[in-house]
Amino acid sequence: MSDSSNPNVSLPTLKVGVRELVERLAVHRMLGAAPRAELEWLAAHGELRPFKPGDQMAQYAEIRQSLGIVLSGHFAIFVDHGAGPHKVMEWSGGDVTGLLPYSRMSKPIGDVVIDEAGDMLTVSRDYFPEMIRQCPAITTLLVHLMVDRARHFRSSELQDEKMLSLGKLAAGLAHELNNPASAAARSAKLLAEGLAEAEAAAQALGAARLSETELAAIDKARRACVTAPPSALAPLERADREEAFAEWLEAHGADSNAAASLAETAVTLQGLDTLAAMLDGQTLNTALRWVAAGCTTRALASEVERAATRIHTLVGAIKRFAYMDRVQVPEPIDLEQGLSDSVTMLLHKARRKSVSLNLQLEPELPRVRAIGGDLNQIWTNLLDNALDAVPELGHVSVSAARHMNSVIVRVIDDGTGIAPEIRDRMFDPFVTSKPVGQGTGLGLDIARQLVRRNDGDIEVESRPGRTEFRVTLPVASDDGAR
Question: Do residues 120 and 33 share a domain?
Fold first, then answer.
């Protein structure tokens, strides 16, 4: 094998007669049905080249600049768009690879791995103009192949971008789910302890043999536990309130440990004064113990409920975002739900940078006819790019409003803007302003493909301090009269 450091090494050729090559081409799965005169032209203008396991095809100038008609053997191309290398296409005897007539491919898009020795007939791109004139049947076949191959690679790129997006979202969602899950587990454990304390306090209260009037006063104090404080308290205000309760409890010979629980409720010092006027000594302490235990258990139960609700909300957003168990076909789509879910999925990233992420939707926004999974992929790509572009404490806004028979979704950020040198090429594949390893350059290309697949349009305006992407989608016919 030749030195792999040289990008223009020469691949060996095999000396074979034209007649033998024509016979091999005649049984070629893809080109064998072409007129014999055209097969003879290929045999006369091509070079038969062997390949074996271990060869790096991309290093050979002949392969990079030629049509390759595979006669035997097997090899595959692996592409890495950031999610790890994976096989996107393979060839064996009867296939065609390399450059094709009218193709704009200028360089290999992946690494070719040979796993079975074989040979191929290569036709230099220098002969393409003549081949188009002399071999119309073969040219037609190759053009169809080029369209199929482009579709295949586009599909692979879309899948890669989806996997990258899901990977990013999964990392953030693991953190988002961990917080409420940890809170629920912690509160549930404390709740078990609180219930035991509440039972013990209830037994002690029952043994005190209180009058109905005294029990009614205690119950009134406990019912305050279901009410939040009159207004949201700042940390310092909460600390002052807790300190005041602790001082009151100590002054009345009660357990000051109940101060933290009482401070989180609407219980007031005046209310405690009323209770203290009816009870004294150990009876007051027992009553306050029972009230505090009730406040604690209610607060912990509410915390478990809030945590479980947060988890339920996130799981619901994931399911809707991925359109699990749904066939990927156009249907009337609720943009409000999709945009809300997309924002929810990326809130973790906004929080890490202390970025303000706002969603503003026009009331009674009409539905659009589209593939739901496509739209969520579009919103994710645009939001992810916007969050990358803004600095710490930056701002990203998402809005949607009707305009005639369309809905326009805007994603606006106050980042540095798109560099002038890539502004005209930003929708081209593999163009990115992100550092190496942080972007594939496929996000906007994929977004444009998906917008067009759903009969929409995407535009951008950018300057330092303000970049706006606009996605226009047609209103679903059954919502057109709204």
Answer: yes
Q: Is residue 209 part of a domain?
A: yes
pLDDT at 436: 37
Q: How much is the pLDDT for 222?
A: 77
Instruction: Give the pLDDT band of residue 327 (cuts 50, 70, 90).
Output: low
Contact (Cβ atoms closer than 8 angstroms) between residue 367 and residue 334: yes
C-alpha span between 462 and 460 (Å, rounded): 7
Answer yes or no: are the C-beta atoms of 470 and 414 closer than 8 Å: no
Residues 53 and 118 in one domain: yes
Longest CA span, the chain? 116
Retrieve residue 113's tokens.
Answer: 């791995």
Q: With beta carbons less than 8 A apart as the criterion, state whether 398 and 355 touch.
A: no
Backbone angles phi, psi at 78, to 5 degrees: -115, 135
Burial 398-437 (b: 16+ CB within 10 A, else e): bebeeeeebbbbebbbbbebbeeeeeeebeebeebbeeee
Inside any domain, residue 163: no
State whether 362 and 442 are in the same domain. yes
The answer for residues whose C-beta is within 8 angstroms of residue 38's C-beta and 6 or more apart is 134, 135, 136, 137, 138
Q: What does the pLDDT look like over 109-151, one tens digit per residue?
A: 567 778 888 898 999 889 999 999 999 999 988 888 777 666 6
Structural domain that includes position 385? 329-479
- The last residue of one of the domains, among 82, 116, 134, is 134
* pLDDT bracket for residue 439 (50, 70, 90): very low
